[in-house]
Specification:
By secondary structure, the chain is mainly alpha-helical. Helix 2 packs antiparallel against helix 3. The radius of gyration is 17 Å and the shape is elongated. The chain starts with a helix and ends with a helix.
Length: 143
Amino acid sequence: MKKSVEKITYIVGLAAIAAIVGLIIYIFTSVTGYLASSTLNILPIVSTVIAIVLMIAVMFVNQRLPQPVTDIAMFAAVALLLYSFYEFVLGRVSLAADVYFIPVNYPASEATALHISIVGIALYVVADVAMIAAAFVRRLAEK
């Protein structure tokens, strides 16, 4: 059981790091370059920060919390990361359309913003998959 708690801590730590870097990329691409004049959607930022707080809580107080509370915190973190991912992708659809589907006379800064955003989106996917994997580690160790 102790090893499963350590594995959960490492996996959730990886997810938290990926979410933090993905959040930084989201903010960076939203306020600089091609998207600097557009409005910043605050909802993905808030939901990612709440998810990171939940992940840190799971990492550091995992053994002291009852199992249902840990499960709810992990589920909430996954749901918040999925929502952030959704908003991130939705905000970049117009960039992808301009760069990949209508490749005529788009500024280079638009392609740069899109390619950096793709890295951020991939980090959100890594964070979400890591959290889902961490949710199953304890269950597999118990069997």
